[in-house]
Amino acid sequence: MLNVLDSAVPVECWSCSVAHNESTLFCPHCSKIQPPPGGNYYSVFNLQPALNIDLAALETAFHRLSRKLHPDRFARATASEKEWSLADTALLNDAYRTLRDPLRRTEYLLKLHGAEIGEEHSGKDRRPHEMGASRAPADLLEEVFELNMQLEEMRAARSSGEDDPALARNLSEAKAKFEGLQAEVDHDLREQWTAWDNGGDAEKQAAQKAMVALLDRRRYLSNLVREVNETMGA
Amino acid sequence: MAYSDKVVDHYNNPRNVGTLDKSAQEVGTGLVGAPECGDVMRLQIRVNPETQVIEEAKFKTFGCGSAIASSSLATEWIKGRTVEDALAIKNTDIVKELSLPPVKIHCSVLAEDAIRAAIGDWKKKNGVAETADTAVAAQ
User: Fold this and answer.
1) What residue numbers bound the domain in which A181 lies?
2) Is residue A38 one of the residues assigned to a domain?
3) In A, residues 163-222, which contact B (CB 8 Å cutoff)?
4) Cβ–Cβ of B40/A141 closer than 8 Å?
């Protein structure tokens, strides 16, 4: 994973020796393929690191670079170039998948800025009052507990071969509710994107804190919905 | 990652799993959760109004082995203690007893939170009656 925010380190092209930005996949001077670059996923696409991005432009760039990196184009190239075309393709795919997904993109950019997200900030020995933003959403606890009880009942019923339509209906309703909450979180995240992209240092910091909390909540909700799906599909 | 013998024991034979009547005056309920792993823990106590001793403690936890063991151990420890004594239990005591690895320390934090939440709920419910007594006891 590429994780350097400032990617302005110049390197020399192995073929023509002209210096170029290290994040480029092809030499701007002689067009030869380059070894897997440094920098970050944004710089691979020559995009400015931001949360609101032009997805159509990202897709176009991805397809263009994918074609240029296709192994068929390197059938008669050197062994190094063949190897790089594979490595660069893997990197390009990772970068595209990360930036295209709104949640993964948010996580990625916040991590580039040093934020600790998810499991990374969960295992530490913090006193309860210091856990602040990482506390479970209190407004949800009752419903989450109730949902878990229903899931347990459902699994027990399933394993003894019973079918409980009322229980299944309750679970579907609960799932719909949690999916609605996910949509709310996504909406709130998008609002913070704009604050982060356009704000100064203070606004960025506030938005970052808000987004870390929102991502926690989002992950929590996703896990619940996934559990319901697994139990109902079983 | 291997669980310690004590965690496995509590996981396989959890103590005090169950439910107390949430609406009863002498029952306090604590419900806490951790967003990172989706654990949710309910701990309930029944307190003797005369002596303030926790006579019964029940829990129900949805989560990993360490979370279940931490809450099971917590109910064992608070039973027979006074409310104020129970508040002295720290998550680090649970970590030591169960030999929890660093990544599972938040499970013990959750259990301590659950004790505090249950006692807090009981205190709130019994606010009028308890002030005089605990004011003396707290000094």
Assistant:
1) 137-233
2) yes
3) 216-217, 219-220
4) yes
Query: Does residue A1 belong to any structural domain of this protein?
Result: no
Answer whether B38 touches A (CB < 8 Å): yes
| Minimal Cβ distance to B32: which of A136, A152, A217 | A136
CA-wise closest residue to B122 among B93, B89, B70, B84? B84
ipTM over the 0.85 cut-off: no
Question: Cα(A125)–Cα(A130) distance, rounded to whole angstroms?
Answer: 10
Shared-domain flag, residues A163 and A228: yes
Q: What pLDDT digit, counting tens, does each position of A100-139 carry?
A: 999 999 999 999 998 887 655 544 444 443 444 345 566 7
Active-site amino acid positions of B? 37, 107
Residues contacting A71, CB < 8 A, separation 6+: A82, A85, A86, A89
- State the nearest Cα–Cα gap between B85 and chain A, in angstroms: 19
- In a domain? residue A118: no
Least confident of A223-227, B73-77, B84-88: A223-227
Judge whether B58 and B71 are in contact, CB under 8 Å: no
Number of independent structural domains in chain A: 2
